[in-house]
Amino acid sequence: MRKAARSRWTVEGNEPDEGFERLARVVKSSEIARLIAAPTQANETDLLFGKIFEECYTTATWIYEKAFYVRGISKKFIRKLAVELKLAGIYSSSLVRKAYRMYSCLVKHGVIGRKPKTMFRRLNDEIVVAAQPDLVDEFYCEFKTYPLDEYAKAQAKVFSWVIEEPIRLVGLVEREDGYFELQEEMVNAEGLKFPNIPPDIGEFQWVCEECDRPLDFCECYFEEEYEYL
Length: 229
Ligand SMILES: [Zn+2]
Description:
- By secondary structure, the protein is of the alpha/beta class.
- The protein has helices spanning 2-5, 29-36, 44-64, 73-87, 93-108, 150-163, 220-227; strands spanning 21-28, 119-122, 127-131, 135-136, 140-143, 167-174, 180-187, 203-208.
- The strands form two sheets. A four-stranded mixed sheet has the order 2-3-1-8.
- The protein binds zinc ion.
- Zinc ion (ZN) is lined by residues 208, 210-211, 213, 218, 220.
């Protein structure tokens, strides 16, 4: 009852006056994965292109969700992607063609869904691990615009540890004819060994003592509040 009356919004940056929050270091799954295996090196254009593609693709699947196969969505995707490539100064018709082929390959293999909320799990007294895969539909799914590497697999393992469900990990391999093939595997957290996490990695945040989520993500007190409405 007292918990419910207490505002969750007043603690930011201040020492809390009651013991419902604690300070923890929130570390992203990708930061942990990078300590396990270095990501495949890519040039700057490839990195930018991959990032723009992921954003446009995730938005398209999110907005259109189950209507994703409806005609016209691919045109909207391409238009948005072309604008983003121009803004980033890397537009070329060959990149647009490449993106369309990647899009077609992912859609054909049912790599669709909504962007899930960020999820958290406590590693120890100091560290909380955050995970946000790209999509959730039947499974949580992480897709890469490049062939799967050790970094991608390590990241999916950490995701799976946080979410406590297997992750559908998908990669794209460009064939000699310019079309794409899908690589995929189900990844679980089995055998995951956490590396030593240096103190400069992660971000200190107030987290809820009950659910280990940062306060912006905690819903523990909402439920109690609703009971009295
Ligand atoms: Zn909570």
